[in-house]
Amino acid sequence: MSRKYASTPMAARSNLQQAVPISFGFKMARLLATFQRHQQRLKEILPRLLVIEFGGAAGTLATISETGLAFEVQEELAKELGLNVPEIAWHTERDRIAEVGAFFALVTGTCSKFATDVKLLMQTEVGEVSEPYVPHRGSSSTMPQKRNPISSVYITAMASTVRQLSSSLFDAMVEDHERSTGPWEIEWIVLPQIATMTHATLMHTQELVEGLEVHPDAMKKNLELTKGAIVSEAVMMGLAKVLGRQVAHDLVYDLCRLAGERHVPLVDLLSENEEIKKSKIGIEELEVLCDPANYLGLSEEMVCRVAGRSVE
């Protein structure tokens, strides 16, 4: 999807306001890059996580130490279970468990960020994407026209719960001496819930990504809402080469305000401005500066870097 929409312009949002143009593929490539980092984290975590704890009452292997085979027994048991052998007992050093809890919170947090964006982009006034259509899914019992972002709602709710529960695993780290009086049991309560909801969150997110409906026409329409103000930075930088940065900034600032008040395109006001006329900047150059598709920066190149292949 990031490659398919690598050059499809849309509005970036800053503080929920339109900022500058980006491509939808750039937005999706950022999601992909985050999951690539999670893959790397998982590879790093697994050797630390999948470690046997077999040490006896206090972790010293005292009951079989005199046989001379204690470490061999530990290694064979670990081999049978497909686990690594620890360098030392870790019965009350629960950093391994807390780390995987934090990892689950990170992964589901990424899913939740994406789902939050989908919810916002699905608003009636925006309409740039839609969740996969399933008859009656996300519909309202009283408002037949509604198509609610129900998958995104589930994702954000479960991810929030995972984050809350994972913090309990850090409490479970605070264990007394070599065999604790209760914190360990916290894991028994929250880990099954964390694992179940992380799995469900990932499943919903996969279905959401695979079936996401993208509406480039709505993206284009929304880019035109500000009558060209969304490319004010591009216009300012273009004019600055001739007029100087501060003069260009003040000029574009005033014209953007007028464009909004009069509901006329910014390019029209630019072409009528006497100072710009004196600078010999023609209408063709102004139109290029005011086209959001010409101000995507390195969106497409960054998509290629993340996706690892040329864009479609």
UniProtKB/TrEMBL annotation:
Q: Which Gene Ontology terms cover its molecular function? A: catalytic activity
Annotated SMART domains: ADSL_C
What is this protein's record name? L-Aspartase-like protein
Family matches, as InterPro entries? AdenyloSucc_lyase_C, Fumarate_lyase_fam, Fumarate_lyase_N, L-Aspartase-like
Similarity field? Belongs to the class-II fumarase/aspartase family.
**Which Pfam family is an annotated match for this chain, by its short name?**
Lyase_1
Any idea where the Adenylosuccinate lyase C-terminal domain is? 227-307
